[in-house]
Amino acid sequence: MCPKPNDTSSALSKKSHVEIFSEPVPALFTALMSEADTQERWITFTFPVDFYTDPYRPKLEKEFKYWTQSAEQEVAPVKDVITLNCTVAYMSQCMSWNKCKQSCKSTGAQSYRWFHDGCCECVGDTCINFGIDESRCLNCPEPKEEDEEVDDEEVSYIYDNEENEHKEKRDSPKA
Protein backbone atom coordinates (compact mmCIF):
# COMPACT_ATOMS: atom_id res chain seq x y z
CA MET A 1 0.00 0.00 0.00
CA CYS A 2 1.14 3.54 -0.66
CA PRO A 3 1.57 5.91 2.31
CA LYS A 4 -1.30 8.29 2.82
CA PRO A 5 -0.60 11.98 2.18
CA ASN A 6 -0.42 14.33 5.14
CA ASP A 7 -4.06 15.42 5.52
CA THR A 8 -4.10 18.94 6.93
CA SER A 9 -7.74 19.65 6.22
CA SER A 10 -8.88 19.28 9.84
CA ALA A 11 -10.41 22.21 11.66
CA LEU A 12 -7.39 22.35 14.00
CA SER A 13 -4.95 22.86 11.13
CA LYS A 14 -6.87 25.94 10.01
CA LYS A 15 -6.76 27.76 13.36
CA SER A 16 -3.55 29.35 14.58
CA HIS A 17 -1.97 31.70 17.08
CA VAL A 18 0.57 34.33 15.96
CA GLU A 19 3.01 36.53 17.84
CA ILE A 20 5.86 38.94 17.02
CA PHE A 21 9.15 38.69 18.93
CA SER A 22 10.45 41.89 20.51
CA GLU A 23 14.11 41.13 19.71
CA PRO A 24 14.48 39.05 16.53
CA VAL A 25 17.93 38.20 15.14
CA PRO A 26 17.45 38.29 11.34
CA ALA A 27 21.10 37.41 10.56
CA LEU A 28 20.84 34.21 12.65
CA PHE A 29 17.54 33.22 11.01
CA THR A 30 18.97 33.83 7.54
CA ALA A 31 22.12 31.81 8.34
CA LEU A 32 20.12 28.86 9.71
CA MET A 33 17.59 28.82 6.87
CA SER A 34 19.95 29.46 3.95
CA GLU A 35 20.54 25.72 3.46
CA ALA A 36 18.37 22.65 4.08
CA ASP A 37 18.64 21.21 7.59
CA THR A 38 20.50 17.90 7.29
CA GLN A 39 18.76 16.56 10.42
CA GLU A 40 15.34 17.50 8.99
CA ARG A 41 14.30 19.34 12.15
CA TRP A 42 12.54 21.83 9.86
CA ILE A 43 11.77 22.49 6.23
CA THR A 44 11.92 25.94 4.68
CA PHE A 45 9.84 27.71 2.06
CA THR A 46 11.05 30.89 0.37
CA PHE A 47 8.75 32.94 -1.83
CA PRO A 48 8.65 36.53 -3.17
CA VAL A 49 6.67 39.23 -1.38
CA ASP A 50 5.87 42.65 -2.88
CA PHE A 51 6.09 45.69 -0.62
CA TYR A 52 4.37 48.84 -1.90
CA THR A 53 6.45 51.93 -1.13
CA ASP A 54 3.68 54.54 -1.48
CA PRO A 55 2.69 54.46 2.21
CA TYR A 56 6.30 55.27 3.16
CA ARG A 57 6.78 58.28 0.91
CA PRO A 58 6.54 61.77 2.39
CA LYS A 59 3.37 63.62 1.49
CA LEU A 60 4.18 66.99 -0.02
CA GLU A 61 1.71 69.81 -0.47
CA LYS A 62 2.78 70.28 -4.05
CA GLU A 63 3.97 67.45 -6.20
CA PHE A 64 6.83 68.25 -8.51
CA LYS A 65 7.30 66.32 -11.72
CA TYR A 66 10.49 66.50 -13.69
CA TRP A 67 10.62 65.58 -17.33
CA THR A 68 13.83 65.05 -19.15
CA GLN A 69 14.26 64.42 -22.80
CA SER A 70 17.13 62.54 -24.25
CA ALA A 71 17.65 61.31 -27.74
CA GLU A 72 20.05 58.62 -26.57
CA GLN A 73 17.84 56.54 -24.25
CA GLU A 74 14.55 56.38 -22.43
CA VAL A 75 14.39 55.85 -18.70
CA ALA A 76 11.77 53.47 -17.38
CA PRO A 77 9.51 54.91 -14.67
CA VAL A 78 10.36 53.99 -11.09
CA LYS A 79 8.07 51.33 -9.76
CA ASP A 80 6.37 51.78 -6.40
CA VAL A 81 7.02 48.14 -5.50
CA ILE A 82 9.99 46.43 -3.87
CA THR A 83 10.12 42.62 -4.03
CA LEU A 84 11.85 40.72 -1.21
CA ASN A 85 12.11 37.01 -0.46
CA CYS A 86 10.14 35.76 2.55
CA THR A 87 11.46 32.64 4.28
CA VAL A 88 9.44 30.53 6.70
CA ALA A 89 10.47 27.34 8.47
CA TYR A 90 8.07 24.58 9.50
CA MET A 91 9.22 22.40 12.38
CA SER A 92 8.99 18.71 11.46
CA GLN A 93 7.47 17.41 14.70
CA CYS A 94 4.31 18.46 16.49
CA MET A 95 4.92 20.63 19.54
CA SER A 96 3.14 22.64 22.19
CA TRP A 97 2.44 26.35 21.82
CA ASN A 98 5.17 27.30 24.31
CA LYS A 99 7.77 24.99 22.73
CA CYS A 100 6.96 26.49 19.31
CA LYS A 101 7.49 30.00 20.68
CA GLN A 102 10.83 29.05 22.27
CA SER A 103 12.03 27.09 19.21
CA CYS A 104 11.30 29.96 16.83
CA LYS A 105 12.83 32.51 19.17
CA SER A 106 16.05 30.45 19.28
CA THR A 107 16.27 30.54 15.46
CA GLY A 108 16.16 34.36 15.41
CA ALA A 109 12.74 34.50 13.73
CA GLN A 110 10.74 37.74 13.54
CA SER A 111 7.51 35.99 14.51
CA TYR A 112 5.85 32.60 14.67
CA ARG A 113 2.57 30.89 13.90
CA TRP A 114 1.42 27.91 15.99
CA PHE A 115 -1.38 25.89 14.46
CA HIS A 116 -3.85 24.18 16.78
CA ASP A 117 -2.92 20.81 15.25
CA GLY A 118 0.59 21.21 16.78
CA CYS A 119 2.41 22.43 13.65
CA CYS A 120 4.89 25.26 14.24
CA GLU A 121 5.96 27.87 11.65
CA CYS A 122 8.87 30.28 12.26
CA VAL A 123 8.62 33.45 10.16
CA GLY A 124 11.51 35.57 8.83
CA ASP A 125 11.81 39.36 9.01
CA THR A 126 10.92 40.05 5.35
CA CYS A 127 7.52 38.33 5.53
CA ILE A 128 4.12 39.96 5.85
CA ASN A 129 0.99 38.59 7.54
CA PHE A 130 2.96 36.03 9.58
CA GLY A 131 4.11 33.93 6.64
CA ILE A 132 1.92 31.18 5.20
CA ASP A 133 -1.49 30.60 6.78
CA GLU A 134 -1.35 26.84 6.21
CA SER A 135 -0.11 23.92 8.31
CA ARG A 136 2.72 22.26 6.31
CA CYS A 137 4.82 20.41 8.90
CA LEU A 138 6.36 17.10 7.73
CA ASN A 139 5.21 14.85 10.58
CA CYS A 140 2.43 16.93 12.02
CA PRO A 141 -0.43 16.46 12.44
CA GLU A 142 0.40 12.88 13.24
CA PRO A 143 -1.32 10.43 10.90
CA LYS A 144 -4.58 9.01 12.15
CA GLU A 145 -4.79 5.26 12.62
CA GLU A 146 -7.56 3.51 10.77
CA ASP A 147 -10.57 2.61 12.88
CA GLU A 148 -10.56 -1.04 13.84
CA GLU A 149 -13.74 -3.06 13.71
CA VAL A 150 -15.27 -3.84 17.09
CA ASP A 151 -16.28 -7.44 17.71
CA ASP A 152 -19.65 -8.34 19.19
CA GLU A 153 -17.85 -9.23 22.39
CA GLU A 154 -16.66 -6.02 24.07
CA VAL A 155 -13.22 -6.03 25.60
CA SER A 156 -12.17 -3.56 28.25
CA TYR A 157 -8.75 -2.99 29.72
CA ILE A 158 -8.03 -2.19 33.33
CA TYR A 159 -4.74 -0.60 34.29
CA ASP A 160 -3.28 -2.18 37.39
CA ASN A 161 -1.33 0.57 39.18
CA GLU A 162 0.52 -1.83 41.49
CA GLU A 163 2.05 -4.04 38.79
CA ASN A 164 2.09 -1.42 35.96
CA GLU A 165 0.59 -3.94 33.56
CA HIS A 166 -2.43 -3.95 31.34
CA LYS A 167 -4.86 -6.72 32.16
CA GLU A 168 -7.61 -7.80 29.87
CA LYS A 169 -11.01 -8.29 31.39
CA ARG A 170 -13.89 -9.63 29.36
CA ASP A 171 -17.32 -8.43 30.41
CA SER A 172 -19.55 -11.34 31.26
CA PRO A 173 -23.08 -11.53 32.65
CA LYS A 174 -23.27 -11.87 36.44
CA ALA A 175 -24.76 -15.12 37.76
From TrEMBL:
Alphabetical GO biological process terms: regulation of BMP signaling pathway
Regions of compositional bias (Basic and acidic residues) in chain numbering: 164-175
Stretches assigned to the Tsg C-terminal domain: 12-141
Amino acid composition bias (Acidic residues), ranges on this chain: 144-163
Region annotation Disordered: where it falls in the sequence: 143-175
Record's GO cellular component terms: extracellular space
PANTHER family per UniProt: TWISTED GASTRULATION PROTEIN HOMOLOG 1-A-RELATED (PTHR12312)
Name of the protein in its database record: Tsg C-terminal domain-containing protein
